[in-house]
């Protein structure tokens, strides 16, 4: 877990970018419209929106909910899984709507299309976050934290 704002920014940005990248590729592939141009076109606005939602809406609410639940907060695994679950639920809820609007506006069967989109994105995002992006981002964060500790030890010597 990040221990300061710099680590939080690195961790959050990496996690956000990788999730937007992976989910963009997933959605383009399942809609048979993958191209590097389509990926690049959607990636920047998707990352900006996801970063804002993550840092100012969903992340705050997800952490409040997670810390209010009767879980063992001393257990890193329980805390990570709880926060991640609420983050995934919130981000999929907003980003599915964002993707639909970017793709073609509000469809005639909005509710049906949204629920289908939300369900398909939830499954993919949950697996992608818990199995790939989360562990990778925590690995990078650990590397950043270890390098910061090494730098501090060298400065003290």
Using the CA coordinates, give the radius of gyration.
Answer: 17 Å
User: How many distinct beta strands?
Assistant: 0
Give the termini separation.
27 Å
Number of helices: 4
Q: What is the average of the pLDDT values?
A: 92
Number of domains: 1
Topology as H/E string?
Answer: HHHH
Low-pLDDT residue intervals, each spanning 5 or more residues: none
**What percentage of the residues does DSSP assign to strands (E)?**
under 5%
Percentage of residues assigned to helices: over 70%
Q: Which overall shape is indicated by the principal axes computed on the Cα atoms?
A: globular
The helix-and-strand class reads mainly alpha
User: What composes the largest sheet?
Assistant: none
Keywords: Membrane, Transmembrane, Transmembrane helix
Protein name: Integral membrane protein
Transmembrane segments: 9-30, 36-58, 79-102, 122-141
InterPro entries: DUF2798
Provide a short characterization of the protein structure.
The chain is mostly helical and 157 residues long.
């Amino acid at each position: 877990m990040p221990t300061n704002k710099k680590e939080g920014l690195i961790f959050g940005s990496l996690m956000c970018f990788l999730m937007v990248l992976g989910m963009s590729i997933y959605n383009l592939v399942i809609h048979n419209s993958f191209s590097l141009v389509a990926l690049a076109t959607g990636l920047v606005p998707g990352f900006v929106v996801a970063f804002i939602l993550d840092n100012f809406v969903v992340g705050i609410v997800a952490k409040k909910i997670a810390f209010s639940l009767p879980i063992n907060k001393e257990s890193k695994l329980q805390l990570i899984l709880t926060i991640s679950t609420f983050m995934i639920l919130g981000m999929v809820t907003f980003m599915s709507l964002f993707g639909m609007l970017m793709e073609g506006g509000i469809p005639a069967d909005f509710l049906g299309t949204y629920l289908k989109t939300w369900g398909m994105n939830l499954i993919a995002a949950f697996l992608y976050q818990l199995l790939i992006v989360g562990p990778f981002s925590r690995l990078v964060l650990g590397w950043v934290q270890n390098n910061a500790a090494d730098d501090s030890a060298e400065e003290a010597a």
